[in-house]
UniProtKB/TrEMBL annotation:
This is Sentan. The gene is SNTN. Residues 56-95 form the S100/CaBP-9k-type calcium binding subdomain domain. Residues 16-35 are annotated as: Disordered. GO terms for molecular function: transition metal ion binding. It comes from Chrysochloris asiatica (Cape golden mole).
Length: 147
């Protein structure tokens, strides 16, 4: 989707007890998956570096874990699974967007993706594209902070 030659998949997620990134192969995402019965919050808690992480770091780590748990052993998502993730995990951002030309364009690009599968980089671009054009983002910008 973005035409990048270097994928962010090359950065290996490492959990406590796994080899350090320098010891792990750099060409694939860590293929080991957590059992589906382990919640994302427990998976996050097992990542030592995030125990004192910021909200933003935890948000990105959550996205990476959701992607990894849904992806195939090669760290890629089929188009159907990517759409399913959007509808199940990102529904508040896509709600009401289905009739908008920009949303249709984004999904059309997903359909035309030549490799038939998305890597983590392409999935993040998809999420960001939908986020930027969503009505929910406009609501977030207008939240009043009270002290």
């Amino acid at each position: 989707m973005c035409g990048c030659t270097q994928s962010t998949q090359d950065q290996v997620l490492h959990l406590e007890g796994e080899p350090s990134p320098s010891a792990a192969p750099t060409s694939t995402i860590a293929p080991r998956k957590m059992p589906k019965s382990i919640s994302i919050s427990k998976q996050l808690a097992s990542i030592k570096a995030l125990q004192k992480g910021s909200d933003l770091e935890k948000a990105v780590a959550t996205t990476a874990l959701v992607f990894r748990n849904a992806s195939d052993p090669d760290g890629r998502l089929g188009k159907a699974k990517a759409k399913n993730l959007l509808h199940s995990q990102f529904r508040n951002f896509i709600e009401g967007q289905e009739t908008k030309p920009k949303y249709r364009e984004i999904l059309s690009e997903l359909e035309e993706h030549t490799e038939n599968k998305l890597d983590f980089e392409d999935f993040m671009i998809l999420l960001l594209s939908i986020t930027i054009m969503s009505d929910l983002l406009q609501s977030i910008w207008h939240v009043k902070i009270t002290k």
